[in-house]
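Continuing the series of single-chain predictions for the mutant panel. This is the parent chain; the variants come on the following pages.
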Amino acid sequence: MPIFKEGKNNYPPVMKIKMHIYGDRILTDILHKTNWGNVECDLQNMDDVKRAIPYMSEYKLIIKLNRIWFMSKNYGVQFKLITALVKCKNKEELDIDFFD
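Parent structure:
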């Protein structure tokens, strides 16, 4: 399965990146860019992550190459998301209670 896929039928391209999770704790930092600066999101579960990263927003990511693997004649890489700075397309999408 490729890590990067070209967009089709007016969909943007996508890239597969794993989040930094330890046990049931989400260690990836998600920050929202607002008029007041960067606000950290409180992430308790994957529903919080979905709300923190709205579809078609602008992102700046810090990712690291986590693993290079080889199996028989196949090979691949795995990326891990360390920090994401999100600039939402619509300010109405933000839930103010969601922030720390």
